[in-house]
Amino acid sequence: MRRIPTTSRGLWITRKKTRFRIASFSTGKTVPDANQDTVDQISTILKRNGSNWKLLLESSDVRQKLNEDVVRLVLKENQRTIDSKKLLDFFSWSCTHLGALQDLSSFSILAIILCNGNQFRSASAVLENLVRDKKQCSEILGSIFSCCRELGCCDCEVFQVLVDVYKKLGFFEEAVDVILAVKQGCFALSLVCCNSLLKDLLRLGKRELFWKVYRGMLDAKISPNVYTYTSLISAYFKAGDWRKGKEVIREMEEKGCAPNVITYNVMMDGLCKIGAIAEAFELKKSMIEKGVAPDSYTYTALIDGLARQKRSQEAKLVLKEMVDAGINPGLVTYTALIDGFMRQGDVAEAFSIKDEMDLCGIQLNLVTYNSLLHGSCKAGKMDKAEEVIKEMHVRGLKLNAATYSSVIDGHVHKHRFKEAARILQEMRENKVVLDVFCYNSLITGLSKLTRMEEAKAHFDAMVQLGLKPNVVTYGALICGYSKAGQVHVADSYFQEMSSQGMVPTDSVLLDLVDGHCKSGTIVEALPVLMARISQWMHTNFRICNVLIQGLARNGKMEEALIVFSDLCAKGLSPNVFTYTPLISGFCKQYNLEAAFQLHGQMVQKGIKPNIVTYNALINGLCKIGDMLRARDLFDSISQKGLSPNHVTYGAIIDGYCKFENLVEAFHLYNDMQAKGIKPDSFVVSALVYGCCKEGNFEKAQSLCCEIVRAGMPSTVAYNSLIGSLCQSGKLVEAYAIMQAMIENDSVNHVTYSIIIDYHCKAGLMDQAEQLFLDMKKRKITPNIVTYTSLLQGYDSIQDKSKMFNLFQVMVQEGIEPDTVAYSVMIDAYQMEGDLVKAVFLMSEMLVKESKSNKIVVDDGVTDPHCLKEKVAKISKLIDNMGKLGLGLDLRICRSLVRIVSKGGDNDDLIQIFGSMVKFGWVPESVSIDELISKDQTKHEDSGKLLKHAVL
């Protein structure tokens, strides 16, 4: 069914849509003598009596003799002798006395007569009545065709009016049917009508109908004119085929149809929007050579194209050329230039353009102001943003939600959440209609920093206002709670989101999986996750692949294979994006045998591995030092129709550098550059490491300088060089490079951590402390590596006081200790005799390691058997505590027993539990199973207890 408006006030009529077919109609009916007498009587009255005809008809016996045949014949027989306006009035009078006329012929004849009398608006109203009366397109056309032939009318103006009626009512398919049917009915098509319809179809994105009309024109042998060709060019550009668009110009010239400035502008705009700026300038040159002068639109398109590519200085030169040509830039031109400078972060230049607009008397509109606001906020120039808002108020411009949302984003970007919330309050006070996007910015910003209480407060406020959360809103909360370790809350939002039919983005699902993996709940959560996403599996296969990717990147290969098997069991065929994360996961775990088995399986099934698949395999082989197989696989890639990319080269170059084959590494480095593949910082860092390993520091520094000249990020490479210099005792050289990095603003936390670590290992703690303070002064945030180096340094000089203070600062700043930090602090507390704090830390460490289902040792290799040693250590600590009369909280006891039950053997478990009971920490009436099975959600994880105990 189709719904069409009956009036501008929004009433609706339902109308069936049928397949187009012209119905046959005939008006050649046998006319009874009585009817003909009535027709003659009416005709005489209409012809002889000017404005008195209605009175005469009303006073005669005509009303009793009036019927649809009479009305039709009066119209037909008087089409040339009576004014068309009078015939329309007679038709309206007839409808008043007869009610709604059903005879299509009368309407068709009247529409034709009105078109012949240039009464096109009235003809449109007549035909609109037919369409609104649920008459099918085929019926209307059949009637008009028959009436045209009977009346001897050969022009097509009535058809053009009918097309306009269908367009007005939004029935573009029917409008196209009329165009095609006119050709079929052997009537001449109007080029103007066709061009108008082509333009409208293109504007509305109805490309199929566009091409149907264009092909119909060609079939009817209608020669396109400049307007047709212009629409054709635009259609090709919208379809992404700019080469065919360019060919149209050539075809026009061959057929003697000269392109005008509009044609060139359409082409110019298309080229600029796809970034083909060089071709756009060539086109400008060509149009000038052909005598077509560029206008304001031409220059604006070029300026906008350059601005989009962050080439605003060149755009400014085009603006000057435009002014020199005597063309005054308008609001759109200046706005494009302002937007370009803001894209480049050049706020000062953007505002200078704004000043120029003011001098020229060009009033800025909301779009221009929003561009200034967005750019200022993005650059962190909130003072400028406030100035813009004040000016908008002065000029009486009403700020909308989009305007404020630029401002909110700017504050959020700078972590100024109070200011952002203030803007929301201001919006409410100014009665600006709030939208979900304003709240999304705040909720997303807070969630990224895991400030979930505040994010939740804004979410609740948004819902209370009646705003419906969208995918972005839910996604932010799910990601935030997952990263904050509150996966049960993330799960609840995921369920709420799913129940409303919203499909999560890749990043949301990955964060949720990461959260479950890190909290140790993925095994329990996996069946629930699978059940929730099963509704999307058949329509959105990507969701399954993302789940597998999330599990694999967290090392949960067993769980990833469970999802893989379930996927296959449901009859879904795995693709390259299913296999590749599994292969990559096994390679990261050094299980190359399993990785190559999967590779063989996918090839056997006819699934072609992509370059990412081969990159994972090559990287895996390089990690285990199997450079022969890695090189064979690398060399075979081109034979498989693929091309190595910078990741492929990076993996094998890194392998050669680590296994001391610099000659081959540099050979590949030169090869990739020769092929136009730009090396990234990882590749250069690998080469720097290789050169330093051989003691060739001069070559390493030369490489670093090379990437600086090439405009590539150099921090990683320089950090590698600094690390190698420190290891070789070349501290003066390392300091010199670091100083140069500081001057270039390329120093980061890794740079400082490397040099701090060197000083700590050398026992030079005064210098290490100074570097640490300098790091904070430059607002470079230390990470766990920095703190761990300092902790080990203080430990080596036996300065336990500074060690404990630093650990307190680290925990207060929200930095999670790693295994090394835990071990150092546990030993320190034991040496100081503070066994309670030692046990707390041991408990915290074991909880985290058990959740990740692995114990990480110093070399980064996963070793689950290490838990046995740690269990023995904690058992000894418990015994020592008990002997000293110290005690443990029941919650910590429960946590420790759970950990030991997972990783230790039964003897360890019984011994530790027995000690807890013996020392009175656990009631004798409680069994091991009862202690473990207590509701875990009622008890806080030992992390909060750790902070309380240690701080």
Automatic annotation (TrEMBL):
InterPro entries: PPR_rpt, TPR-like_helical_dom_sf. Keywords: Repeat. Signal peptide: none annotated. It comes from the Eukaryota. The keyword RNA-binding does not apply. Pfam families: PPR, PPR_1, PPR_2. The keyword Repeat applies. PPR repeats lie at residues 225-259, 260-294, 295-329, 330-364, 365-399, 400-434, 435-469, 470-504, 540-574, 575-609, 610-644, 645-679, 680-714, 748-782, 783-817, 818-852, 889-923. Belongs to the PPR family. P subfamily. This is Pentatricopeptide repeat-containing protein. It comes from Kalanchoe fedtschenkoi.
